[in-house]
Fold:
Amino acid sequence: MLTCCICNKKIGRKEEGHMFSHKHNQLFLCEKCHSAKEKLQVNTEGKIEEIQKNRKYFEELLYIGIVHVSAKEPLQNLLKEAENAEKESIQYRFRNKNLLSTTGNSFEGYYIAEYFDVINTELVLNIGMFSELGGEICDISGKANNIVAQKISDAKEEALELLKNRATEKGGNGLLGVRFDVINLIENMLVISASGTAVRIHKKEHSSSINSI
Structure:
């Protein structure tokens, strides 16, 4: 019977486990450790909280000494990569916080130094049972409409963050002409589409003149 090389949990058959990697194809992971490992391998769009949570999970298992000796080195390498991914996420979060966005074509007090590509992103939103409620019920309570509206609003915020990530990757610090579209894909499914133009902007310098008497 196989056991997880990280937490030592019994897996059962070989088909029920997950390989640690193609390079370490004799090391197997249980479902929990596999899921935690996948969440460590994120890009700049990943959530830093997820990286920290799963990195801590593996560090604790290493500390108490139940990790198989053959898995220690690849796991430590993976944690080092996760630490770098965490630092990148912090950097992107800081840059995104300072990145300006507008639905217009200019920023007051700034000039556009460089235009990059038009960028876009799409999110699929499942609005669930609320789309199946009758219009009469929605009108009476208003709750279903409010919940769906909140879901769409949250999805737009997430889409904007993704746009900011991509603008930053291209070297931009601003987004022009930000636009959102909500498309009814199939029953209970919406597509939230967001687009904008990534630009690099600089603050205008205001020269002051001193009048001599």
